[in-house]
Amino acid sequence: MESNPPNQIGYKIDKLKQVPLFGGGIRYMKDKYKTKHVYVVELNKDISARKYFKKQNPDYQEGQPCVYVGMTGTSPKQRFKVHKSESSKGSRKVKRYGIKLMPEHFEHLNPMTWDEAVVVEKEMAQYFKGLGYGVIQS
Q1: Strand spans (E) along 44-131
Q2: Looking at residue 31, what is its pLDDT?
Q3: Could you tell me if residue 84 is inside a domain?
Q4: CA within 20 to 30 Å of 129's CA: 1, 17, 60, 120, which one?
Q5: How many domains does the chain fold into?
Q6: What is the reported pTM?
């Protein structure tokens, strides 16, 4: 896997004009608007002891950070607050293990279209896995 510095994750965004979508590649009007954000949350390393974590991260290198990578239609700060609240709309994993947002990995990319966010979220998760990080993806 090609290793890109974190500030270059999403370097393919300008080339994403024809992202295939489910249902035959139909683009919706909302895809024209840059209303989505990707974000990264640092997770407590205690999560690395969980069975689901080990199954999703067979190449996790002990001592490397654990992160949650997601996308949202609100601001990353607001989404993190939802995760940490009593709301049923947040991830239980982030609620239990989330420490803080890691804006150095995503601020320079946001906002973006839905199509771009789907691709960049996946690309970021793969990038971090390639570094030996533990990754939970939304």
Answers
A1: 66-72, 98-101
A2: 54
A3: yes
A4: 17
A5: 1
A6: 0.77
